Automatic annotation (TrEMBL):
Organism: Companilactobacillus versmoldensis DSM 14857 = KCTC 3814
Sorted UniProt keywords: Cell cycle, Cell division, Cell membrane, Cell shape, Cell wall biogenesis/degradation, Glycosyltransferase, Membrane, Peptidoglycan synthesis, Transferase
Domain of life: Bacteria
All residue ranges annotated as the Glycosyltransferase family 28 N-terminal domain in the record: 3-142
Name of this chain's protein: UDP-N-acetylglucosamine--N-acetylmuramyl-(pentapeptide) pyrophosphoryl-undecaprenol N-acetylglucosamine transferase
Gene: murG
Length: 367
């Protein structure tokens, strides 16, 4: 198939798109692929690194308040639709897929006006503005949480398929990557991170809890987020930087490769992280970001916690003690781990990419 994929801004929108492309390549289903993103978004780094053909359009998000800047944003939106149409006419895709982030609004809308089959993928329990807008026009709306069904009035278009990144994560078996971070491959390990960009409140709590983590019987990987790394390192006493059971890193380039080596994940409840964690049946502690639209991370986190697969700590309640004690209560109790792990597996969708691909081929065959 000839396919255009567009999604951008944060890793949570980009990685599912990349996982879909990877799976299509594995199944030898791609005649030609093009990723459309923005120069400024994280996608310009992630996509080009994987040697996927990449084109950019200029577009930015609307401000929530009524401001003059929104007039500019609107102008940019219309001109980005024009540019998207040009890209689509040249590439001649069989299908166009949007995975969220404002860049996909122009690309998918342009494809719709050119009568190309279109699909959006919504990763969250609560749909983003872009996907809510696009839901009116696209042929299929693919969701990753059953709870997202209420978000779209166009019920007949909705298909539940999970998140493609789940399948990518599930395909990787334990491969002792912990040694790359100077950790012991045989010791139970917890990973703590704040989403694809890192999160200052989580970083603060981890820094304050380092004396406890250094004494623990388990190991801890602390991923700060690239932009926070230097600032975090400056605040940490050398003895914790040298501690043999602690590894501190700015970012993990290939998260699915590390996940099978872990016993517990602590972090934000971004939808793509949740898909990866549950595909592997890992227990989690979520500290939802309160700064996202409609508090959707809390809804994401609760949907996993209701099933017994995760605990949730509100960011406003987060302290070093609370963080460490919650981590220790799971890391030091194999029965709790096993129970949470089973519950996590039950909600994972390890064949999510194939489910999404079935939607694409169904549409292409019909058109
Ligand atoms: C602040 C914000 O707007 N967050 C949103 C964003 O989150 P964000 O981009 O942080 O989201 P997710 O948790 O969904 O995904 C993070 C992705 O980055 C990867 N990763 C992370 C850290 C690292 O060091 N290495 C690495 O590879 C994870 O494995 C995962 O694939 O998009 C998600 C949609 O999917 C939403 O649910 C989140 O609410």
């Amino acid at each position: 198939m000839r396919i255009i994929v567009s999604g951008g801004g944060t890793g949570g929108h980009i990685y599912p798109a990349m996982a879909l492309i990877k799976r299509l390549q594995e199944r030898d289903m791609i005649e030609s692929v093009l990723y459309v993103g923005t120069e400024k978004g994280l996608e310009s780094k992630i996509v080009t690194r994987e040697n996927i053909p990449f084109k950019t359009i200029k577009i930015s998000g609307f401000k929530r308040k009524l401001t003059l800047q929104n007039v500019k944003v609107l102008q940019m939106f219309f001109s980005s639709i024009g540019k998207s149409k040009k890209i689509i006419r040249e590439f001649k895709p069989d299908v166009v897929v949007g995975t969220g982030g404002y860049v996909s609004s122009a690309v998918v809308y342009a494809a719709h006006t050119l009568k190309i089959p279109t699909v959006i993928h919504e990763q969250n329990t609560i749909a983003g503005i872009t996907n809510k807008f696009l839901g009116h026009f696209v042929n299929k709306i693919v969701i990753a949480f059953k709870q997202a069904e209420d978000q779209f009035p166009e019920k007949q278009k909705i298909v539940f398929a999970g998140n493609p990144r789940a399948q990518e994560a599930a395909a990787i078996k334990k491969n002792d990557r912990l040694k790359d971070f100077k950790l012991d491959a045989n010791k139970p390990t917890v990973l703590i991170f704040g989403g694809s960009r890192g999160a200052t409140p989580i970083n603060k709590a981890v820094i304050a809890a380092l004396p406890d983590f250094a004494k623990a019987d388990f190991q801890m990987m602390f991923v700060t987020g690239r932009v926070h790394y230097d600032g975090v390192i400056k605040q940490i006493d050398d003895k914790y930087l040298q501690a043999r059971n602690i590894a501190i890193l700015p970012y993990i380039d290939n998260m699915p490769e590390i996940l099978p080596d872990l016993k517990l994940i602590v972090g934000r409840s971004g939808a793509t992280s949740i898909a990866e964690i549950t595909a592997l049946g890992l227990p989690a502690i979520f500290i939802p970001s309160p700064y996202v639209t409609h508090d959707h991370q809390t809804v994401n986190a609760n949907s996993v916690a209701e099933n017994g697969a995760a605990k949730v700590i509100a960011e406003s309640d987060l302290t070093a003690d609370k963080l460490f004690n919650n981590v220790a209560s799971i890391m030091n109790d194999q029965q709790v781990q096993a129970k949470m792990s089973q519950a996590s597996k039950e909600i994972g969708v390890p064949d999510a990419s194939d489910k999404l691909i079935a939607v694409l081929t169904g549409l292409i065959n019909k058109s």
